[in-house]
Specification:
8 strands, elongated, alpha+beta, DUF4230 domain-containing protein, DUF4230, three-stranded antiparallel β-sheet
Length: 216
């Protein structure tokens, strides 16, 4: 057997072996899936953000894009997205401005306190009823824009809910209790101080004793 014949037999035998291996793998239900990921760390920042309220939201978002073909007829594409989100609302304490009286009095004066903000949104998206046009197809940037718009809508909905008010009440009363436990007085800006006084009054209201039912 000459060298060329030997090489041909090896090639044919190797090809047959690969084909047989693929057939057996398909029959056994085993698939060879390879995934690669690259993690890039851009930066690390020190933050002091406190979560004071969390809410759970569901949103149905309808997306539609109209495109005219030859200025004659519309070629729409549309999709329906159902988003379920967990929204965390709290405060960035790096924005707090405070001072202590010069006479050394145990009093913390808050000159400026930030408004509550959405600290994070953890969203699960599901796409339904995706309909592409004849020539107006969906592309990667379309899905990115849809998700960004849905997330922005969820952010606005969260800020229009009771979450900011709940977070405000929580942080004010928490700071008051913390200062009181250390023997300090807390003074907030006028509007926030009025809210705190109302919260303190509610907390100090005695709980009415249950009425006794008449016997007999």
């Amino acid at each position: 057997m000459d060298f060329l014949t030997t090489v041909l037999l090896l090639i044919v035998g190797g090809g047959a072996g690969v084909a047989l291996s693929n057939v057996l793998r398909k029959r056994s239900g085993i698939t060879d899936v390879r995934r690669e990921s690259t993690l890039l760390l851009e930066r690390i920042e020190k933050v002091f953000k406190v979560v004071m309220a969390e809410g759970y939201f569901s949103e149905i978002y309808n997306y539609q894009d109209q495109k005219k073909i030859l200025y004659l007829f519309n070629d729409p594409k549309k999709a329906m997205i159902i988003a379920k989100s967990k929204v965390l609302v709290g405060f960035d304490f790096a924005k707090v401005r405070f001072r202590q009286p010069e006479n050394g009095e145990k009093k913390l004066i808050i000159e400026s306190f930030p408004a509550p903000e959405v600290l994070s949104i953890d969203t699960d998206y599901n796409f339904y009823d995706i309909q592409a046009g004849i020539l107006n197809h969906f592309h990667g940037e379309d899905y990115t824009r849809i998700l960004d718009e849905a997330k922005q809508a969820m952010n606005e909905r969260a800020m229009q809910s009771d979450l900011p008010k709940i977070a405000n009440n929580q942080i004010q009363y928490m700071m008051y209790q913390l200062a009181s436990s250390m023997g300090w007085q807390l003074q907030l800006p006028e509007a926030e101080q009025q809210q705190l006084e109302a919260l303190k009054a509610q907390a100090e209201e005695p709980i009415a004793a249950p009425k006794q039912l008449p016997i007999g």
